[in-house]
Amino acid sequence: MATDAGLTTGQLEDRTAVRVERLHRSFNEAGGVLNGLDLDIAPGEFVALIGRSGSGKSTLLRALAGLDRDVAGHGSIDVPDRVSVVFQDSRLLPWRRILDNVAFGLRGRDARRRGEEALAEVGLAGRERSWPHELSGGEQQRAALARSLVRDPELLLADEPFGALDALTRMRMHILLKRLCAVHRPSVLLVTHDVDEAIVLADRVIVLVDGVVSSDIHIDLGERRSPGDPRFASLRTRLLAELGVEDDHEAIDTQDRKAAS
Ligand SMILES: Nc1ncnc2c1ncn2[C@@H]1O[C@H](COP(=O)(O)OP(=O)(O)OP(=O)(O)O)[C@@H](O)[C@H]1O
Ligand SMILES: [Mg+2]
């Protein structure tokens, strides 16, 4: 996909879905938010991105989504043609029914049928004619996932998509997202504040510090991942240390403050 002004576009190798090289982004003269960031994501790979608040996670995601054309920057970004984005709030259009939201902008005579199938996939069959405000927060996020997946994305970008959900709903969304990714096989870049969420879902967890990827960790825990597993716990400790959080209580406080703000 072509990138915005100030960026150069290279040729992707077959086994690379996303390639970011020497990416810089800054909002003012004081300093850069992204400072020469490099990142590759393979086709079908699930990468979780963590970092402190203000470290530039959303800035990177917006750059990959091509949503930052007004921001000063340079570097090289290659992404696939079909990119979908999911945010913390569902961004459903309130004046359109759920099926119309999901199928909005889709081309072809089978657009509505594909929308119905996507809604069924996320467990919302029967809610096609509901209005967004009639859905719970978790249901709205499921509709947002359906809207993304119906476009058959090669790359799914998700910025804290479950951040506003309660713990139980979040766990159910993890299971749903894993299932959908196993079927559709997009590459995924998931921004999250939740280290456990990153370890549960991702093939790789990357940590953003000072505008570059400071750690890039493959998660080798197999399919069934339990926070009770000592290897899970040791990864959590390591990632929290990377974030400068020395114990779990401090991490929970940080997440609670974020949730309350
Ligand atoms: N449109 C903007 N104008 C000016 N500064 C911005 C803009 N967007 C982001 N920034 C600044 O860039 C830095 C990185 O912001 P970004 O939103 O990428 O952080 P983040 O890692 O996603 O944080 P959080 O975890 O709180 O969502 C912050 O210091 C922020 O204030
Ligand atoms: Mg953010």
> What class do helices, strands and sheet pairing give?
alpha/beta
**SS element count, helices:** 8
CATH homologous superfamily (4th level) name of the largest domain: P-loop containing nucleotide triphosphate hydrolases
Main sheet characteristics: 6 strands, mixed
Mean pLDDT: 89
Q: β content, as a range?
A: 15-25%
Keywords:
Rossmann fold; disordered N terminus; 261 residues; binds magnesium ion
Write up what this structure looks like:
There is one protein chain. With 261 residues, the protein is of the alpha/beta class. Strand 7, helix 5 (167-184) and strand 8 (187-191) form a beta-alpha-beta unit. The protein has helices at 57-65, 98-103, 111-121, 137-149, 167-184, 195-201, 230-242, 248-260; strands spanning 7-8, 18-28, 31-41, 46-51, 72-78, 83-86, 155-159, 187-191, 204-209, 212-218. The chain has two domains: 7-82 and 158-260, 3-Layer(aba) Sandwich (Rossmann fold); 94-152, no CATH class. The strands form two sheets. Strands 6-7-8-4-9-10 form a six-stranded mixed sheet, with helices on both faces. Strands 1-5-2-3 form a four-stranded mixed sheet, with helices on one face. It binds adenosine-5'-triphosphate and magnesium ion. Adenosine-5'-triphosphate is lined by residues 27, 33, 51, 53-59.
